[in-house]
Design brief:
globular, seven-stranded mixed sheet, three-stranded antiparallel sheet, alpha+beta, 208 residues, 28% helix
């Protein structure tokens, strides 16, 4: 599947990472540092989206559709609570742009982007395409909408800082299903404790 600047296979653990334990940002950082290359660890928001998008694309595959539906159902069930990702929004004061950092395995990627603005459904906010790309790696907000409608029967909704910060601030990214939306929150307090999905990358190849 497409991931960041290349292609990779993403494997999903059949249960929440570390037995469903809830950790804050530093707790998950420590957990990842102690992990081996064979362990499942939390993935970035772009890893989550790449996996869900691939499943959605192949939902009618004659050989895999039953297994895909099992995975979709598993994800829908686990996402009934907010799950942490290894993505971090860094809010900078004017005139500097903000940045969103994605940690995928041992690799770090970042996207400079103005992240502040109104909360709302991605298909309604004026910068929906830009936010979809920065957070999820998908430039087309309508494609993003279709993917999460397939997963949860709800439209993706963005929750973020509404004004430009006067000093450096940061918040991490969580994903979860609420009664009204698939909620993408990019200003989670770094001391909040959340569970996470376990993932691992196999065979990453940089795009030529």
């Amino acid at each position: 599947m497409h991931l960041h600047s290349g292609y990779a296979a993403i494997e999903l653990q059949k249960e929440l990472a570390d037995g469903g334990d809830q950790k804050d940002l530093l707790g998950w950082d420590d957990y990842v540092k102690r992990a081996t290359g064979h362990d499942f660890v939390p993935g970035s928001s772009q890893m989550h989206h790449a996996l869900i998008d691939l499943l959605c694309q192949n939902e009618d595959h004659p050989r895999y559709r039953i297994e895909i539906e099992k995975i979709r159902s598993f994800l829908e069930q686990k996402l009934q609570q907010p799950l942490s990702t290894r993505s971090l929004a860094m809010y900078s004061p004017m005139p500097s742009p903000d940045n969103i950092f994605h940690l995928s395995g041992q690799r770090l990627y970042y996207v400079p982007e103005h992240l502040f603005g109104i909360n709302g459904y991605l298909h309604n906010i004026w910068d929906g395409d830009r936010m979809s790309f920065a957070i999820l790696g998908e430039e087309d907000r309508q494609r993003t909408n279709d993917v999460y409608q397939w997963l949860s029967k709800k439209d993706p909704h963005l929750e973020r800082n509404n004004k430009k910060k006067s000093s450096l601030d940061m918040g991490w990214v969580s994903l979860g299903i609420t009664s009204s939306s698939f909620n993408i929150k990019i200003n989670v307090n770094v001391s909040d404790r959340l569970p996470a999905l376990g993932m691992r990358i196999r065979g990453f190849h940089k795009r030529e």
